[in-house]
Design brief:
The complex is a heterodimer of chains A (129) and B (368). Chain A is of the alpha+beta class and 129 residues long. Chain A is built from four helices and nine strands. Chain A has one domain (10-114): RNA polymerase II/Efflux pump adaptor protein, barrel-sandwich hybrid domain (OB fold (Dihydrolipoamide Acetyltransferase, E2P), Beta Barrel). Chain B has 368 residues and is an alpha+beta fold. Classes of the chains: A alpha+beta (129), B alpha+beta (368).
């Protein structure tokens, strides 16, 4: 099984992705994470304006069989939340890197210690086999 | 090393995600748990359940022996019929839940995969004084479940089922049949709350029969289903899962399985204690509940009273796919097991309100 890992993103070991857009970053969960979880049927996200610490949990995403905490890959203040996911979570499975985005953060730190696509793909490969 | 069924390679070929379950490496899902769940509610799904234990009890005392260890009335199971039963400990705890099929001259007993060794030992410990023979056919036979409202129609389309014969197989009936050239026992039993069949046949035929059953009807009529859907499908009609709603430390009255205990059938292992429990009523009891607050209850989550006292735990909880609700079952003090009672489920360290509701959540649609 192979999973998509777009080159323009950076990745955490807890399977979140980060897309840098100026001084803001967009966060979601990876293709590998959505596949491992199965059909997502429930999500809890924080409110815009909340401050996040890198590495802390910021929400939860659940499928019929499993529940998985979401970890902030970078810290900062949340400037936007993908509210559409509250009613319909299908984008998390269907397009995890696009419509499945979760938070937009004004980052207060660097994302340099996250993995690039090649490193993350190798990481996924090492845990999947 | 995890055990594998004769269909292990097939599961990989069909794209299953494999997980550990009761010491076995089993498919949890193929495409999507939800698609598999809905396929069984609406049409048909095929499950490999070869991991379950299959013991054959024969000999002149076979019925008396089973009557001695099971809580149900084995003498009431006619040849060609089957029934649900429990093995109970002398203290009332449940060793396992089982299905007993009465075949000509012998009984087939299906037990949980995770309890195979424990049950086998239990059978032997209680066999003294009975002239019986015990055979473990678990490895020689494969076991498949074809479940869903379309199962009968689809099976009747196969060339050698002797077509309409299945219409005459009653609920819990069991018969010998020929399916795609393979001799098989077919029973109108299952674990999904839908009409459906369970098949027993020589393990060597498993890969061929698996493929054949997935091609009946139009493409996609029968969907391969994993343990994920098996769990959500049994959860909605509130069928017990060993290790969750029932265990060595949970008795049948706590688990609302008093209807499986026939105290007036004569003596059996556990009867004395079970009579006493029934007389006083259990202190705790299984209840169904719906989340009132936001959150999903999961197995083993703590339950506390509105006042904040610990009162029990969740046995199973999940979003129920057919009902679209966040539901669960929990063991709580009997007074709080009544419909309408409220308590809190501790979801990620926070109390979330839940309300006791009627069980089952989904009314089984068996062919009667």
């Amino acid at each position: 099984m192979s999973f998509t890992t777009p080159d323009n993103l950076r990745y955490s070991k807890s399977h979140e992705w980060v897309r840098v857009e100026g001084d803001e970053v967009v966060i979601g969960i990876t293709d590998y994470a959505q596949d491992a979880l199965g059909d997502v049927v429930y999500i809890e996200l924080p409110q815009a304006g909340t401050s996040l610490t890198a590495g802390a949990t910021f929400g939860v995403v659940e499928s019929v069989k499993a529940s998985s905490d979401l970890y902030a890959p970078v810290g900062g203040e949340i400037v936007a939340v993908n509210a559409a996911l509250e009613a319909d979570q299908s984008a998390i499975n269907g397009e995890p890197y696009a419509g499945g985005w979760m938070l937009r953060i004004k980052a207060d730190g660097s994302e340099d210690d996250l993995m690039d696509a090649a490193a993350y793909a190798a990481f996924v490969d090492s845990i999947a086999h | 090393m995890l055990l594998r069924t004769p269909l292990y390679e097939k599961h990989l070929a069909y794209g299953a995600r494999m997980v550990e379950f009761g010491g076995w490496e089993m498919p949890v899902q193929y495409s999507s748990l939800l698609d598999e769940h809905h396929a069984v509610r609406q049409s048909a799904g095929l499950f490999d359940i070869s991991h379950m234990g299959r013991f054959v009890v024969s000999g002149p005392d076979a019925e008396a022996f089973l009557q001695h260890i099971a809580t149900c009335d084995v003498s009431a199971i006619a040849v060609g019929q089957s029934n649900y039963g429990l093995l109970c400990r002398p203290d009332g705890g449940i060793v396992d839940d089982i299905f007993i099929y009465h075949l000509p001259n012998e009984f087939l007993v299906v037990v949980n995969a995770s309890n195979r060794a424990k049950d086998w030992a239990w059978f032997h410990e209680h066999a003294s004084g009975f002239t019986i023979q015990l055979d473990d056919r678990s490895d020689q036979w494969a076991m498949l479940a074809l479940q869903g409202p379309a199962a009968e129609t689809l099976l009747n389309q196969t060339e050698d089922v002797q077509a309409d014969d299945l219409a005459y197989l009653p609920f819990h009936g069991v018969a010998l049949c020929r399916l795609f050239g393979v001799e098989a026992l077919i029973a109108r039993t299952g674990y999904t709350g839908e009409d459906g069949f369970e098949l027993f046949f020589a393990a060597e035929h498993a890969p061929a029969l698996w493929d054949a059953l997935l091609t009946i009807g139009v493409p996609g009529s029968v969907k391969p289903c994993g343990l994920g859907a098996r769990d959500s499908l049994r959860f909605e009609p509130c069928l017990a899962l060993y290790g969750h709603e029932i265990s060595d430390t949970i008795n049948p009255y706590e688990a609302r399985l008093g209807w499986v205990v026939k105290l007036d059938k004569g003596d059996f292992v556990g009867r004395e204690r079970l009579s006493a429990i029934k007389a006083t009523g259990p202190a705790r009891r299984l209840t169904g509940f719906e989340m009132v607050g936001k959150g999903i209850a999961r197995g083993d989550y703590a339950v506390q009273s509105i006042e904040g006292d610990p009162i029990g735990h969740v046995t199973t909880g999940m979003p129920a796919p057919t009902l679209g609700k966040m539901l669960g079952m929990a063991l709580v003090p009997t007074a709080l097991s009544k419909e309408g009672s409220e308590f809190d489920i501790i979801v990620r360290d926070k109390p979330v309100r839940a309300r006791a509701i009627k069980m089952p959540f989904y009314k089984a649609r068996y062919k009667k």
